[in-house]
Design a protein that fits this description.
This protein is mainly beta. It has four helices and 22 strands.
């Protein structure tokens, strides 16, 4: 459902495009860049997309596409901003006139079309474009320095329509042949989630059983007395500090994606004993800000079984690239711990899996073919 503001904005943009087309058919000179009104638009695909439209295909691993509120952008509250920068990172302008239109839905994703315009001079074709979303409040000054310094307060380990993951993405563009009367084609923008995801799965049997291709049964005997994350930060940065180009975090390599360091505010306080949230049978999850596990309080997953007399246990996730260190909890990364429980024997297997980034595919002009495909795959 559209609000009157959405309808009005869309009508305004349509009239602008018609007016530009009309001017292009007259003998009037093309406006100078300072007078130009650059119209643009791009698709936003939130969630898993089909392989034919997925431009990222690294050969050394698989990405998790995310699901549910992990991919949610709060469009209903206009919780999204588009910002233009020069190549030297100085601010050009915020794109304030745009409308987001739903195009179609897949089983686990939605597709939107963002259409807007700007009077900023893009004639050189050399600029950066950033998309930030789910920040709730935004800096008045959208310079990259202010964007990097913006923090959020951690409210809950459980996602919802109001407890969303802050998102950030930025791309450097160097294009040729940009004209005021033609559409600009940018390519793809990738968004990073500001949270890490930590999941615990409880199964019967052993990892060797499952490695043989068998689907192990859900555990119907062991139950947790408690399941907690021992330490976590109560705040985080919305955007990764110092990241000013998509090349900083998109390397098309499963091992090297995404940001190799954690961004943690100096004001962040370490809290303790965060309960995991059940999400399905024998699955528990927490979403948390980034955390440095090299300090004085490395985080562990603490647990105790109701039926066991062995007492509490603690699990620490080892850095997959350095067995001498604990793994830091980085943004946009999923830490999955599978507990194989067989009588009194425990086996813990930890996987560190990059989320698949949320792709924004700027096409600059509504593509009828893509629109049709989206509508027919609802």
């Amino acid at each position: 459902m559209f609000s009157l503001r959405d309808i009005y904005t869309h009508l305004l943009l349509t009239l602008t495009v018609l007016a530009m087309s009309s001017c292009g058919q007259s003998d009037d000179p093309v406006p100078t860049p300072s007078e130009a009104n650059y119209s643009f638009g791009f698709y936003i695909t939130v969630g898993e997309v089909s392989s034919k439209s997925d431009s990222r295909a690294p050969s050394d691993g698989e990405y998790d596409p995310g699901e549910g509120y992990e991919n949610f952008i709060d469009l209903g509250r206009d919780d999204i901003r588009v910002v233009l920068y020069n190549l030297d990172n100085t601010l050009i302008s915020e794109v304030s006139q745009f409308v987001v239109l739903p195009v179609g839905s897949y089983e686990s994703s939605k597709r939107y079309y963002l259409q807007g315009n700007t009077k900023s001079d893009l004639s050189s074709g050399k600029f950066k474009i950033a998309v930030i979303a789910n920040w709730k409040t935004y800096p008045t000054d959208l310079s990259l320095t202010e964007v990097w310094s913006k923090t959020y307060q951690f409210d809950s380990p459980e996602l919802s329509e109001t407890n969303t993951i802050p998102l950030f993405g930025i791309k450097e563009c160097s294009l040729t042949g940009v004209k005021v009367d033609s559409e600009i084609k940018i390519g793809t923008i990738h968004l990073l989630r500001a949270f890490a995801k930590i999941e615990v799965i409880l199964k019967n049997g052993s990892s060797a059983d499952e490695a043989g291709g068998n689907v192990l049964p859900e555990n119907d005997y062991w139950h947790f007395r408690y399941l907690r994350l021992s330490h976590y930060n109560d705040s985080g940065f919305n955007a990764p500090t110092g990241v000013d180009s998509q090349d900083d975090y998109v390397k098309d390599s499963w091992k090297n994606d995404y940001v190799p360091y954690v961004s943690i505010p100096t004001t962040a306080q370490v809290r303790t004993n965060l309960d995991f949230v059940p999400t399905a049978k024998n699955h528990w999850v927490v979403y948390v800000p980034e955390y440095n596990n090299q300090g004085a309080n490395p985080a562990s997953i603490d647990l105790d079984y109701v039926e066991s007399s062995q007492g509490p246990k603690s699990i620490r996730i080892i850095d997959p690239d350095d067995a001498s260190k604990f793994a830091d909890f980085k943004r946009n990364v999923w830490y999955r711990v599978t507990i194989y429980k067989n009588k009194e024997k425990d086996e813990f297997v930890a996987d560190v899996i990059p989320y698949k980034v949320i792709d924004l595919d700027p096409i600059f002009g509504l593509d009828t073919k893509d629109n049709t495909e989206s509508e027919t795959t609802k």
